[in-house]
Hints:
The complex is a heterodimer of chains A (234) and B (313). Chain A is an alpha/beta fold.
Amino acid sequence: MLEVRNIDVAYGDVQVIWDVSFRVGQGEIVAMIGANGAGKSTIMRTVSGVLRPGKGQILLAGEPIHTVEPYTLIEKGLAHVPEARRLFPEMSVEENLDMGSLRGRARKERARTKERVFSIFPRLSERRRQASGTLSGGEQQMLAIGRGLMALPRLIMFDEPSLGLAPILVQDIFNVIRTVRDEGMTVLIVEQNVRQTLALCDRAYVLENGRITQEGAGADLLRDPHVKAAYLGV
Amino acid sequence: MKNNLVPLVVLAVLAGLPLLGLNSYVMHILILSIMWTLAGMAWNLLGGYCGQVSFGHAAFFGMGAYSAGLIHLHLGLSPWWGFLVSLPLVALVALAMGSVVLRLRGPYFVLATLAIGEVLRITCENLTDFTKGTLGIMITRTWVEKTQYYYIILGLALLGFMVCRAIVHSRWGYYFVAIREDQDAAESMGIDTTRYKTIALTVSAMLTGLAGAFYTNYMGYIDPGVVFSLGEISILIIMVVMVGGVATQWGPALGAGIMVILAEYIRSLPLIGVAYQTMFGVLLIVIIIYLPNGLVGDWPVLRRKLLRRGATA
């Protein structure tokens, strides 16, 4: 579904991603884990077209996407639930969801998808007319995910969905991600919450200082001595 | 239903005003207020809804004004044709300008617009053969009476009002607000942000140009220092919107009325009258601190405060 081949990414003169390659297969949940500043969000931003790789290729279903305009990606089936939610704070919950389905098939299916989002997150349904800036952190995260789902993407990317949420909400959000996958979407997730993420995902990549140092099945990495020592604190 | 009726009632009242036989000074104030309403609505589309704050709208105002002046000077045409000439000209310049400055964000965009307004003023001052430089251009006004001018600017403002209203309530309006709220997120929702910012800029510029072309016809005299002025045009447009209400339908109209009357009043005061722009600066600071959304935008807050005071008194 998504294939990233040997990308380098730099902010000005400062290179932060070095020769990173990974792939996300159809129907998989793939996680990218790493410490603060390892380059996780940079990779996400590069895949979603906000940043351009200095070298290498990014292919979505075999088609190169690192050269196209970022606003066309959503039509190609790639949705991004960005870090810190990035909602439109003065728009209502419902308007935010509508913004997620501006084009093509998503637009035609808008009413139906919205009902589905509301059934996944009943809280959003109760607050559909409220300005999104006034929601709690957990509700905002639900809305950001809902907005991503509105695009009916083939691949949905989550950037730190558990950021700043209470543990019980984190569990809810992770359950939703599992549901999303079970409905046929492919998931790429970037997280610092390593234990829960590894338990959720099929495969994971470990990112350290802008390079991928390890990869494997989530369950295997959970038992890996290096991962245990560096990220799980045991 | 109620919302559709309000503009009609306002329009009917405004259309009836000259029948009251108002004196020519009051008519002058009304005409200027409506002209600034038009410019304010235009600025509001770009600055209020789309979030791209421009400090250079004098560029478009001045171009509209000079369209009218120059066709009269060089071609001997009636300056009223300035409206038609200004539209494609201003649109073209806005498109060219947009392709450069709309790549910039935040303060960089603001500074770029400010620079363009000033560049046009200086160009206009120095192209003496073409524009007569700081001597300015004088035209003969068509009417001595104000009434005709009043109905013309009212018609133009109505056109501007309907254009802005139609855009704000359309899909474009939502895109503009999305761009204002979070440009990267808007882009990842599939909005071609550059394209929609350019649309906002172009429409805004064209409406501002119409106000400028009207200015030439009404005042009968223009020079670069006035119509490309940073303080008297670019910043006054922003004041009109800030005082009235950013991203509101009626804010520019209210703001324009207040600013025009205030400017006239302060200028008439002895001693401090010459410092009226300083007063505007103070007013702007007060507005930003206490009513950041302007009188219309913060009306619910204002009303609550007034009611509470009324209840305790």
